[in-house]
Amino acid sequence: MPRCPTCQSEYAEDVSYCPRDGAALLPAVLEGRYRLLSPLGAGGMGVVYLAEHLGLRKSVAVKLLRGELSRDPTFARRFEQEAIAASQIGHEHIVNVTDLGRTPTGELFYVMELLEGESLGALLLRERFLPLWRAVPILMQVCRALEAAHTRGIVHRDVKPQNVMLLQRQGQADFVKVVDFGISKVMQGQPGSALTEAGAILGTANYMAPEQAAGGTVDARADVYSVGVLTYEVCTGSLPFRGDNTFATMLQHLEATADPPSRHRPDLGLPPELDALVLSALAKDPAARPTLETFRAGLEALVPGRVPLQLTPAMATGRVPKLPAAAPPAPLAVAEPLEPTVVATQSLESVHRGRRGGLLVGGMGALLLLGGAGLWAVTSGGPAVEPPTVSAPVAAPSPVPALESPKEAAPQPAPAPVPEELERPPEDEQLDVTQKKPPPRRVRPDKPRTGKVQDLKPNPF
């Protein structure tokens, strides 16, 4: 029993379309040859179905124009022109249309090859942008398809990612098929060239050439502009012009200047040659734009020595491995650590404490040695030595133990060595040894000294 694919309502065998939403009931047989199996996609003008050619047992795609549009002479003529244009171009990168007809209720349809793949729009929705090594082959195939259409006097007028299908064919991945010539225009001098009324604006605003947005005369150079927009989007992940609404976007196409792709995405390292190529295609004046052949040659020069992307088993299953990561740079060979050397805070603190402790012990030892030598000089009448001034505060020295007087007179010891920066006082001048911080404490010997000391002063204690 026929069933509506939209609302799932069932109807009698003599009903072909759902009265609720106008969808064709499935399964349905068109002209006794094409059985509609399931919808593949829908657009503003019609629906595309997966179908089977009953005679050849072959899967095909059928595009069915909506009923109300099929009865409109302008839309009906444009739909027929799409089928005729695609079938007459006969290029490997353009979808092949094999049949055109009407249903018993008057709806137009045409039959085309079944494309098993995904659109460039779906790929960009997932990947956002493509590297040059993958983007360039896709864009070059789009250029070849449009060149073939222009040779036949046909302007596509709706070049966008959704109308570029990517297939896996002949062992090659990303094999391009350009589809949807529904708003294509036959250039002046060709049959059907008067189909589009003067001032009519047809196309998608994001990819529309300035003269197309203004309702002016459109020729093959409008497709060059659209390819420039497509290249910008594929290589950067964003459109050169995008307003808050359709009219704002169209106004930008008429007046605004696009940023170079490398400036828009400096993180991608895009070459300046790509900037010059894309901006030339986006020229406001159609006469300033390159031809598609020149644009394609410029694309090919961006990736010299490229080869077609070969299909691998991983690509066939949808699991495409990533490119091997670049080897990390070798570390610099440095014989010694460069200044400044950064160490941990804990290490710095331990080093700092060790240095302070060493200075403190060394300072106390030096004071004890100098104090003993000075006391010996005072009590023995020899020359005294002035100790060096210590700038840093030090702890008070421990009490000096009492000196035990020798039983017999000993020869006078040689004076302690004096640093070079200190002056030795005259031998005949007697100096008192004092210490600023803290003041020294005189130590009285337990036993009176014996010896030849003639000028010893009385003990003040």
Automatic annotation (TrEMBL):
Keyword field contains Nucleotide-binding: yes
Entry binding sites for ATP: 63
Signal sequence coordinates: none
Keyword entries, A-Z: ATP-binding, Kinase, Nucleotide-binding, Transferase
Organism superkingdom: Bacteria
GO MF entries: kinase activity
Domain Protein kinase: 34-303
Compositional bias segments (type: Low complexity): 395-411
Pfam families, sorted: Pkinase
Regions of compositional bias (Basic and acidic residues) in chain numbering: 443-455
CDD domains, sorted: STKc_PknB_like
Chain segments carrying region Disordered: 395-461
Protein name: Serine/threonine-protein kinase
Source organism per UniProt: Archangium lansingense
